[in-house]
Each structure stands twice: as C-alpha cells, then as structure tokens.
Amino acid sequence: MSTYHSFNFKQILMHKYLIEDEWMVIEDHFDPKFHKSSESLFSLGNGHMGLRANFEESYSGPSLQGSYIAGIYYPDKTRVGWWKNGYPEYFAKVLNAPSWIRMSIQVDGKELDLFTMKVHQFTRTLDMHKGLMIREFKASWPDGTTIKVETERFLSMKRKEIAAIRYRITPVDCSPEINANLIIDGDVRNQDSNYDEKFWEPITTKIKDHQAFVVSRTRKSGFEVCTAQWTQVQIYGDSETPKIQTNKDNESVSASYRSRVRAGDTIELIKFAAVVTSRDYTTNELILKAEERLTEVAKMGYLSLRTEQFDSWQHKWELSDIRINGDVSAQQGIRFNIFHLNQTYTGHDPRLNIGPKGFTGEKYGGSTYWDTEAFCLPFYLSTTDSQIAKNLLVYRYRHLGKAIENAEKLGFTDGAALYPMVTINGEECHNEWEITFEEIHRNGAIAYAIYNYIRHTGDDYYLAEKGLEVLIALSRFWSQRTTFSDVKQKFVILGVTGPNEYENNVNNNWYTNYLAAWTLAYTMESLDLVLENYPDDFDRVMELTGWPVKTEINRWQSIIQNMFLPENKEVGIFLQQEGYLDKEQMLASELNPAIRPLNQHWSWDRILRSCFIKQADVLQGLYFFEDQFDLETIRRNFDFYEPRTVHESSLSPCVHVILASKLGYTDKAYELYLRTSRLDLDDYNHEVHEGCHITSMAGTWMAVVEGFGGMEVSDNQLNINPVLPDTWKELSFTIHFRGLLLHIVANHKQITISEHQGKPFQVIVSRQAHRSSEGKPLCVRINE
Amino acid sequence: MSTYHSFNFKQILMHKYLIEDEWMVIEDHFDPKFHKSSESLFSLGNGHMGLRANFEESYSGPSLQGSYIAGIYYPDKTRVGWWKNGYPEYFAKVLNAPSWIRMSIQVDGKELDLFTMKVHQFTRTLDMHKGLMIREFKASWPDGTTIKVETERFLSMKRKEIAAIRYRITPVDCSPEINANLIIDGDVRNQDSNYDEKFWEPITTKIKDHQAFVVSRTRKSGFEVCTAQWTQVQIYGDSETPKIQTNKDNESVSASYRSRVRAGDTIELIKFAAVVTSRDYTTNELILKAEERLTEVAKMGYLSLRTEQFDSWQHKWELSDIRINGDVSAQQGIRFNIFHLNQTYTGHDPRLNIGPKGFTGEKYGGSTYWDTEAFCLPFYLSTTDSQIAKNLLVYRYRHLGKAIENAEKLGFTDGAALYPMVTINGEECHNEWEITFEEIHRNGAIAYAIYNYIRHTGDDYYLAEKGLEVLIALSRFWSQRTTFSDVKQKFVILGVTGPNEYENNVNNNWYTNYLAAWTLAYTMESLDLVLENYPDDFDRVMELTGWPVKTEINRWQSIIQNMFLPENKEVGIFLQQEGYLDKEQMLASELNPAIRPLNQHWSWDRILRSCFIKQADVLQGLYFFEDQFDLETIRRNFDFYEPRTVHESSLSPCVHVILASKLGYTDKAYELYLRTSRLDLDDYNHEVHEGCHITSMAGTWMAVVEGFGGMEVSDNQLNINPVLPDTWKELSFTIHFRGLLLHIVANHKQITISEHQGKPFQVIVSRQAHRSSEGKPLCVRINE
Predict the structure, then answer these.
(1) pLDDT at B11
(2) B-chain residues near A603 (CB < 8 A)
(3) Cβ of A488 and B582 within 8 Å?
(4) Phi/psi of residue B482, nearest 5 degrees
(5) Do the chains contact at B485 and A582, CB–CB below 8 Å?
(6) Residues A614, A711: Cα–Cα separation, whole Å
(7) Which of A155, A290, A586, B634 is the most exposed place for a label (fewest CB within 10 A)?
(8) Between B80, B483, B609, which is nearest A495 by CB?
(9) Distances from the Cα of A121 to the Cαs of A27, A30, A140, B623, in angstroms?
(10) What is the pTM of this model?
C-alpha cells in the first residue's frame, strides 16, 4: 500500500518534548533520542532548496543527513518483487545533495561532537517569525575543557540560491587552540537507494580567496550543481588573529581557521553558501554564477542579509498568518504548518511542486502526488497572489505531453492523458499496480484544481491559455476508461482504487465515477466558455488537440447522462463502490484499540475486505462538490462513512473537519482537528524522524479556514460561516479572493472582515449576503 | 502476476531443433544457442535429486549450471517494492547444489571446451526408455588436435543417492597427453538470489583412496550434504597406465588422471557419485553413508548398475506408458512428459513434492503450488500404486500445523488452515498480496485431492487416518472467510483471486464459492463416514480438533445452503465473478495476434479489466465436478468461456481438452492438445532454457487419458469414453483403479480393456456398463 500518509489515529504515546510558544519551536535540552526528529522539525527551506536541521559540527550519533535541491533528482532503478507490465523503469528521487553546512571544530585537537560530550544549556529554536534556526549550548570534554557555541542559520527567501550561517565559539575558563574547518562536502549518499548506488559524481573543485566551489553531477540524470562557500572569521576580544588554510580534493573543499582563543573571547565564523544548478544556468557558468551570488551577499554582510530575511518573512506572515486566540498549542501548531508550507513551495518556478515531505527527509523521493491539487492548492490560492497558485497548475500543464505518453503505455490513444501517481519530471515513478495503474482519480483532482483555481481567482482566461488543453486530454482518458455495461445499460469504470486505498481494484468507485462525469461536463462547459470569450485561443486549442471529433462529443454526452453512480437508497448513501454493503458492517469504535492502526496489525487482504476506510472517499467528493448536494445528503453520508473511517492517512481528518463543521458537529470537528494540527510537532505517528508531513499541513490549513472559518466559494460568491471550537476565543486569517485581500476576524459572537486597501466587497455570512462600504470593515453578528 | 505457467498460445516461431523419435529425444548437432534449452530438456532426475544436462567438461559459453537435491532449500530473504503486512520473510528455494559431474579435460595442456572448439558429429540423446543421457562428439582445437568423446550418465532410480558417469576419450590421429580431472565442486551459486548471497558454506573435504568427499552446509537452513565421488580409469589399448593425483581445498576435491594416450586408444573414466544429506542421516554419519553407497556400487561395477537402471525404467514404463499409434510427434511428446514426471516425483518420501520446474531449473524455487493437487495427482493416482499418490496428500497433512499458523497470521482463529500458495516446508513463500493472501481456492484443491484420491483408490480409511483433520481445518477457514451479506441475504466471499489470475481481488468468484461450499459439505459427509466406519479414529480426531462445536455446525450448514453462486440466467452461465458481464465482451479470436500473449503486451490493469481469461476458472469447477452438472450446462459455459480464454497459462489447455472431448468438440480438443503436449520439446514459449514445465506435463497426461481416453470416475464407477483425434490410429494406456491394473487400448472402432492379472472388473463405456469375465479382456465396439 502506498501509505505515504500513514497516520496513527489511536495514539497512546506522543513524543512531546518541545516548548509551546506562539512563534517559536523550542527544544530546551539535548537528548540524542530526539535528535533525528528535531532534524526534521527544525528543517529550513526556501522553495529552491532546503535542509534538515543537521548540526554543522561533527555528530557521531544517529542522524539523517539531508540537504535537498528542488528539481534535482536521480532516477533510481525500480525494485519490485514481481514485475508487472507497464511498471516504470525508475523512481525519480530528490536526493541528498552536497553539504554546505558541514564544519569540523577542534578544540585543542579534540573534535566537537555532542554525541560524545557533556552538553549543558542546550537550546534549539526555530524562529518562525523571522525564518531563522538558532542553537546555543555549552559542551564539555571529559578533561573539563568547555566551550559555548551560538549558531544561527537561514536560507534566504529573497535570494533563492543563498544561505548563511553564523557560528560563534567562546571558550569557558580555558584558552584552547581552536581549529574551525568550514567544508563543502560533495561526498554524500542517500539512505534510500534501491541498489546502494552513489547518486553523485564529482566534477571539479576550486578555491579562490575566501571562496571555494564544488561542482558535482548527478549520475544518469546529469544535473550539475555548484555548491560554494564564502567564509570569514572574526575574533571578539584580544586573541590572536586566526591563521587560514584551504584544502581541496576531488569532491570537497574547506577553509580552516586556527587560533588560540582566550577564555571569554569569541571566535565568530560566517559562512555564506550558494547553490546554483544547471536547471538555471549552463554548466559552464555555474562557478561564475555562484561567485556572483556570494560576492553580492559578502558585500551586504551577514546582518543586512538577515534583516532582509526578516522582512521577507514579515511579508509572508502578513498574507498567510492564522491567529488562534486562546489556544497557544493550536496557535503554534498552525503556524508551524504555515511556516513549512511557505518554506517548501514559493511558486517562483513552475517546474517545481510539493513533495509529501518537502525538504525535510528522503521519503517519497520529493515527488509530487495528487496531494498538490486536492490538499495544497487551497492554501496557496488563499495566501499568495494568483500567479503562485497558478504555477501549480502550470506544472501539470508542462507535463501534459508526458501524461499522454503515460496513458499510451497503458493502451490509451488519441491524446488521452493519465497523469502519474508519483512524479518529478512528468513520468510515472510508482510501482504498485493497484496504485500506479488504478488510482486514476488523480486525473479528476487535476481537472478539479483548474475549476477550483478559476472559481477562486476568477481568472477564466487560464482555460483559454492552458487549462482547456489539459481538460480535453483528461476527458479523453475518462471517455476511453469508461465501459458501457450491457447488463446495467450504464457506463461503468472498472478496476480502480479510490482515495480510500484500503480498497483496491474495485468497480464503480462513486468518487471516481462522479469525478469522471463531472470532468467531461466541465470540459464541455469550458469549451463553450473559451469559444465565446476567447475565440482565437479556441481555434488554437482545436488545432492542437484535433478536437472536436463528433463521435467523441456524442460519447462524452452519453457518459455524462448515463454514468453509473452506485447508491443505496434504503440506507440513503452513495456507495463507495459496488458491493461495499456486502461487507461485514462494523464501526471503527468497535475495534480493539490494540489493533490500531490496522495497517500495522492486519494483513492486507483483511484490510481490503473489511469495511474500514483509510481516508475520505465518498466524503472527498461531497467536500469537492459541497454546493451540489443538500445538507441532508451530506449528513447521511457523513453519518454513515465517518464512523467507518480509521483515518490512517494524515490527509483524512481535514476533509472530515470541514464537513463536520458544516454539519454543526463542532465537537467531532475539533476532536479530528486536534489530531492533525500538531501531528509532527507532537509526533503522533512516531515517524517524524523521517521528515514532516508537508502536504498534510496544507490539509490542516484547510481544516481551520474552510472548516472552523467556514470559507467556501459557491456560485462565484465567497461564503464565510465560522464555527469556532469552544476553547478558541478568536480566529483570524487572511485570504486572497478575486483581487481582494480580506482579513477575517471571527469570535463566537461576531465576524469582522476588512479589505486590505479598503475596497468594497460582498460576502455571504451564515447564508446571508452582506456588502461592505468602501474603506470600512464589515461586521456581522453571528447567531449562536 | 504469478504467471509461473506463462504460456504463449499464439506462437509464431517454435524452436524446433530436435529429432522426433518414439523413445528418444535427439539433438544431432551442436549449436550453443540451443545449449541452455537442451540443458533443460535433457535433464535427469530420480526423485531424490536431479540435474540439468550441463556438460561434464568445461564450457565457457552460456549455460545455467543446475544440480538440485529435493528438499534442500535456502530461505532467501524476501525482496519486494512495497511491503504489505503479512508477507513472508523469505522465499524458500531449492538451490543449485555442489556439482558432482564436473570434469576438466586437458589434451596436451589445452582445455576441452566445446564453446571455443570445432565440434563435429555431435549427438545428445535422452534415452527415455532406459533413463540414460548419452552424448557423443568429436572436437578439434585450432592446431588440429582432435578427440572423440562418448559419455553417458544416469541417476539411479533404485538407489536414490547414486549417479554414474562413463566418460570415454579417444584421440583421433594424434597421441596427446590427456589429463582428466574429476571434480566434486562445492563452490556453486544460484543465478536466482535476491541479494546476491552465496547459499552454501563449506564444512569439510576428505579424500580416501578412490573416493573423495565434500561436505557443505546451506546457510540459514543448515542442511548438510555430503557429495562424494568414486573414480576409476581404464585404458583400452596399449597406452601407458594413467598416473593419479588427488587434490582438495576447503570446498572441492578432485582426482586427476594423466596419461599419454595413443591415437585410437580410449581412456575411459568412470565416476560414481553419491549425494547423502542430513534430511536422511545425522550430520556425523554423512561421509560414512556416502562411502557405503559408493562402495556398494563400485562392487557392482558400471555395467551392472546400468542394467539395474534399465530394469527400473522398464517397470516404470509398464505402468505409465501411453502409446499413440500413428503420430510419432505426439508419441514422443507424451513420453517426454511421462519421463519427466517419473523423474521428478517417485513418492518415496512424503516430505517431498513437485515444483513447477522439477529438477530442470531454478525458477519458482522448486516449491509446491496447487498444481500438485489439481493437475499432478491424477497422473500418480493412475500410474503408481496408491501409496505414492497418497504421499502427495500426506505432504499436506504434515504441513497442517503450519497451514493453521499461516491462517493465524492472516487473522483466522480456532484451527482454521490456509495452505500456502507456494511452499517447501509448509510456510508461505510468496509475496504478492493478490496471490498470497487472496488466491485461496488452493485450499479447495487440497480438499478436492482428498476426495479425488478416495474416489480413485476406494481408500476411505485415509479420511479416518489423516484426511478428516485436514478437511475440518479447511472448512473452518472457509467458514470464517465467508461473510453474510445483509443486502444479498447470502453468504459471500469477498476479495479473492480465482484460478484465472487475470482477475485480482474480485468478489464472489464462482469457482471459489462453489469449492468452499462443497468442502463444507464434503467435510460433513466425511464426518458421518468416519463416525460410522471408524469410530475410534472419529473420537481421536474430535479430541484433537476440538470438534464439533455446535455453532460451527450450524454456520457450516447455513453456508452450504445459502452460498451465493453468481450466475446469469439469461446468458445461461455461471458468472466467473460478480460484475464479469459489466466488462466489454470480446472474443480472443478478435484480438490482434501481434498483441498476444496479452501478458507481454498489455499493462496489468488493462488485462484485469478486460474479459480475457488466463486459464480455466468456471470451467475448472465444471471439470472437477463434471458429474454434478448436466452436459448442456457444461456446454453453455464452455461455449461462453473458452472463446474468452487466452490460455496464457500452460495449465489452461488440458482442462479445456477434457471438457471439449466430453462435449464432442474433438477438433477443438485436438487443437488445444497440440499446444501443450510438445510445449517444452518445441519450446513454444521461448523459455525452456529456464527449465521444463513439469506440472503442466501432468496436465498433458490428463488431456490424453481423461480427454481423448475419456476416463472419469463417477458414482464409484470407472467410465471410459474414448474420443480419438482423426490422426491417431490407436491410443493405449494403463491405469490403477481400486486394486485393478487395467490396460486400455482404444481405436476409432473399439476399445479393449484387460486386467493385468485377469481379475474381473466392471466399467462404463459410452454410458453403458460392461462387465469382464475373469481372465478375459473386455472388448467394446464404439458407436461412431
């Protein structure tokens, strides 16, 4: 099972070791057993690159070294037990890249290594407001030699190729010789390698004054990366000026600073790092570009660069912050999620996307799943300008050719597209037949994302520009993937896996069938819209796609009218798939907690034939299309399916929070919310050491804004229907909506909405339309 | 897909390079491109061990070295892409064992190696009548040195641990120094190793006079094997007496004979090999036992041992030969199959079973599949005494405890048993969830084998002795695996894979549901029978199994009465599974031959959602229970399903041949038969280099005897209804049946049946009962 979002709902032991604070994540003592978890949690990123919170200095204890560059991947040869026709040759993995943080600190010849030393007054702080990771500690060797270290680092949000470290060492009660060796290390490996191969090969190294460069190339995929440093040392106090020595071999460079430092004096090391790649430049100019970048920031100096970083994050927070008044824990949780989402994807490059672990671990290879369209897009739609959200759509548009090739491999023709389940470059990477070949609802999410983008931004020109081409290819897929059943006299879709991956190879998954028919209908509508409003584009797209073919239109219309949508009228529900009610019906609450999560206790066949649901399936459809179903239909289905749902995907609770809030099940909503918002911070799942659940974080954002905040776009209208948990005094958030930038503040009594520039706006609150006056916030009392 | 019987039905190119002969398989020239195929085809075995037809002398060309010992396996750590809960830790593989054939022949210092030399007058002959492999050739080095080699070898059918080689070398037109080095080589590897591990470790080596011993141990599983040789040399002519030199290292031993041999003189090397294992002896006595075995045969001498071998095979053929008069090609084909079946399993050891490739290759690890019960048992029932067939049942009886454990791993309780899909020692080895966990119909075949054994032998005491325990455990499994559907008000079986592996995870596979209900009913009958006839055994079994539990009986009865058996009355067929008729209906004949076999051209999902059938599924059930369905029901289902069947399993055609014969579709039957009887000899599938399809060979036997011969046991009566293909003048075969040994000779006009000792018997021919007179054959004219 591709449980890439495994989630233990029933969790006895949380690994709660961090201090709660509204803006900071703080670890206030050092325990090697939490180090790998902290390495994930304190990860930094800036969209272009990111790294786990590995220590700069040597560390001989358990650690997952991870430094990643967006879009730089290695095609790791597929490894399976039993090959199935159609499997991809490789899994493209974003890989552990040359390390630019590494240092070796020797004090009187003894290596600084917290795993072997006595550590005091340790703190590690993620300053989410400023985009900074800070660490302070004292460490003593057995002979009593003690030093104090203060280090901070950041990845520039403004200068995507730049990072900076300030590392200060102060001897305590002794005056040792300190040798600080600042390294760029090209000799790196992935823990996750199917055949224990090394993914990088060294190209060249170079040292020039304060700068040093390592150029490396990924094997097979041939990306070249120049990882470079500019280093500087300063002594605070009277100690001798350090001697510098540089070194290089074929894959590493270093600059070492040696000095006897008096007790109480401080040696400060500044390191600017640049990471430039052949994705942006020709291979010839990589060293030159790295040098330019480093020279720019060296001129600015560390403090100015840091101030620039604060400003960047200040701006990010103005647009994306959520305030939860009255609940520090929830406040920290949601900010932690928003912080990581902003670190992972900035929208500056439409060739990039969002991996389930972002830059926080190797797992899932940094690849893109349908999470992007179904769970991440709403966050970026609301918190960034439309170009950034649009780039998530453009990513798929750029892969359309590959998606058509992918469909051809599976026997589809005439421009039908099947987007990959997992991809970096547009090619399918996954290799479980029941997922790779059958979890085709991902195609529906890609169509839905286009619809969702336009409904939110109003930018219907996107259809003409790019969207329609994608929609036609998706519709062609659905049309070919649908079979007319003589027995049913309906169109059926056989052999699929729905969002609930605890069912495989089922027939007529309601969600998939609904999405398929909806996609066809939306494509037909879009054709009309583009024809009417953008006739030139219409002609171009018709030319390009060879559309419309008369027989295609007829078939599409016939499918839209005659799609089989399984339901049970007696129980009053849509059927997750044909035969679902033949299963033994049980509720999750009847399960022995000792066998939760099921995916760790039951064999796969038993999970498959049980009625238990991993994540929203029918309910995912009702969430997507909530304005197409009456409340009672949603209620009957929620009442039936939620109790059968074990939420063993981290993407499950959010959709349920949103529907529960809508249905007035506030307690249920809050109970589910609690389990997602601090999933990583409290490590409910005992797996944060592998990396954070980045895409789930976007689900949490949805749960707050679309659930408790009650935001919904329906009939081109913005709806806001806040339903706050009792413990929350006030909830506020900001959203972009069709050129407006609205700030919403809700408490249990009233809701206040203001537009950033004072533009007038209309909004539906609690099912009633309200219009603001220019320059004035809108205030609406909420009926209790 | 576990297409362990992949079979290309539409085959353009056959690799036909062998001479047709009634008793011999002959390769009359040497072509390295066929060598690996010949290595498979000319394999020898004696139930205890076997080997591919590797050359004794060095060979630097492509070759699959293979020497196997029944029951000696290595647990090779599982390798999968995505782990599923419940997967086994390892796949037990019968492994390439220390080589006892190896020789190095040097002629004036030049190595004999047919891959690099000029080869003339090469013949390789499998003498199936005598159980002998013979090879003759002349080979020349570039300098003109030419030798003639005649070699023959056999594995003793009477002395399971003994094999013999006679290797004669005659220099032609030169008198070179010949150095023949006879080796036991413990340094062997498997090509198929999941993690490139070596499976053997050396224990000790020993040389004593003419004998030499290598003791090796399998890693992890800890089997010890002593592989030993006794060697002798003789010169025919005046050449000098050879000098002998022995050598050993930690895993090999050798005896080399050096002599200058005059042109035309012959140096003859005799090698007796013994292979004794810790499966039969304590590890301390292995060398001693090997020495005893070798001393016995050394005393006899090569020629006496060979005569003994001829006698053994003479006896085998008396019981199992099939004569097809008028068709040499078919005659050779069926004898080749019978020969391999007799080589693979002799029934001397109930711990052994039949792997899909027997001793002819590494593939499928020598493990046991449901092939044994469904396809192999009938051959051994008819051609051997009942003890030998019974041992195939006892094999499963011995694994009952493990089958109960296996079921427990999947969540079953209270003594329910699920036999493994693939096993050597009773533990599951396979790791595809849709097969391992879901192809549970294998449990039905194991119950059916008990029924089939008793119906054929009349030995109903087997139920009391062992069968009932197995049946109760199987019934408990079915009872727990069955779900009561509130919607259908019937018992359903969800999430299975039927014999047609081109459908996975389906609901209510008719074959599985039918077998499940039948097993419950047969178990109930068997309980009554044992209670009545063997009350002491009944009490013992009740005590042992904790049966009967009242609630269990009630549920069993309810399932028997209310099992859901999907059918479509309009079309008049049983439904392979629910929803089968929702598929797009096409016939195999409409498929473009270029995309056959589908499993090499279509992605797995496409195969799954197509209507095409890999092998008999509903029809497998109608074959098993042919006396429970009227001819018209069988005909409607055959007419519907066979045209949708692509026969991409080598086990598919045989069942169809039998049903087609019964239905009078003789042309269809013969067309299908042709594609199986010489599957390996003509290498229809381009894969015989990997090994022969041993279990399919038993299917071919069934096709002849139960299809064209029309043998069927029904209501305790033997039926014979021959339907001969036009080209066959006469068909004769011998069968054991309830203490009778009947020889049947059928032509297009009449059938003659004689009992070996002249006992009187009754038989139904063409639906009419006939009774023989004592001492007289029965002659019945057939209505044309």
Answers:
(1) 40
(2) 84-86, 409-411, 437
(3) yes
(4) -95, 140
(5) yes
(6) 26
(7) A586
(8) B609
(9) 11, 9, 11, 79
(10) 0.93
**Residue in B80, B483, B575, B605 to test binding to A, most A beta-carbons within 10 Å:** B605
Q: Which candidate in A513, A603, A605, A612 is best for mutational testing of the B interface (most B CBs within 10 A)? A: A605
Q: Exposed, middle or buried, A243 (CB in 10 Å: 0-12/13-18/19+)? A: exposed
N-to-C CA span, chain B = 44
Query: How many A/B residue pairs have CB atoms within 8 Å?
Result: 135
For residues A361, A362, A367 and A369, what is the CA-based torsion angle, rounded to 10 degrees?
-60
Measure the CA–CA gap between A240 and A260, rounded to whole angstroms. 6
- What is the token pair recorded at A704? 């707050």
Nearest CA in chain A to B411: A602
User: How many Cα atoms within 13 Å fall on the side-chain side of residue A341?
Assistant: 33
Which DSSP category does A451 fall into? H
B606 contacts: CB under 8 Å, gap ≥ 6: A410, A411
Nearest by Cα to A209 from A301, A294, A99: A294
Provide the residue type at A137 as one letter: F
Instruction: Give the nearest chain A residue to B430 (CA atoms).
Output: A81
> In angstroms, rounded to a whole number, what is the distance separating the alpha carbons of residues A432 and A434?
6
Chain B, 85 to 114: residues with Cβ < 8 Å from chain A are 85-86
| Residue from B196, B198, B147, B194 nearest B169 by CA | B147
State the ipTM, two decimals.
0.92
Residue listed under structure tokens 């018209």: B632
To the nearest whole Å, the CA of B609 is away from the closest chain A CA by: 6
pLDDT at B13: 47
The verdict on B505 touching A (C-beta cutoff 8 Å) is yes
Are the C-beta atoms of residues A504 and A434 closer than 8 Å to each other? yes
Residue A215, SS3 per DSSP: strand
Q: How far is CA A577 from CA A442, A567, B404, B503, in A?
A: 17, 9, 32, 17
Decide if B81 and A432 are in contact by the 8 Å CB cutoff: yes
What span, in angstroms and rounded, lies between the C-alpha atoms of A714 and A764? 10
pLDDT band at A5; cut points 50, 70, 90: very low
Residues B157-197 have pLDDT tens digits of: 999 999 999 999 999 999 999 999 999 999 999 998 888 88
From CA B215, how far away is CA B286, in angstroms rounded?
8
Q: Closest residue of A to B435, CA-based?
A: A605
Under 8 Å CB-to-CB from A630, ≥6 apart: which residues?
none
Nearest CA in chain B to A497: B605
Cβ–Cβ below 8 Å for A581 and B495 = no
Among A81, A582, A605, the residue with its CB nearest the CB of B483 is A582
**Mutation for A interface: B421, B577, B582, B596, most A CBs within 10 A:** B582
Give per-residue pLDDT as tens, B605-622: 999 999 999 999 999 999
User: Which of A40, A19, A16 is closest to A694 using CA atoms?
Assistant: A40
- Per-residue tokens: B283: 């590890």
pLDDT (tens digit, 9 = 90+) per residue, B327-374? 999 999 999 999 999 999 999 899 999 999 999 999 887 899 999 999
What tokens does A361 get?
């671990």
% pLDDT > 90, chain B: 91
Pairing of strands A762-765, A717-720: parallel
The reply to whether residue A495 touches residue B600, judged by beta carbons under 8 angstroms, is no
Give the helix, strand, coil percentages of chain B, each rounded to 5.
35, 25, 40
The Cα–Cα gap between A242 and A225 comes to 31
Q: Does B579 touch chain A (CB under 8 A)?
A: yes
- Catalytic positions of A: 501
Give the model confidence (pLDDT) of A123-162 as tens digits: 999 999 999 999 999 999 999 999 999 999 999 999 999 9
Active site residues of B: 501
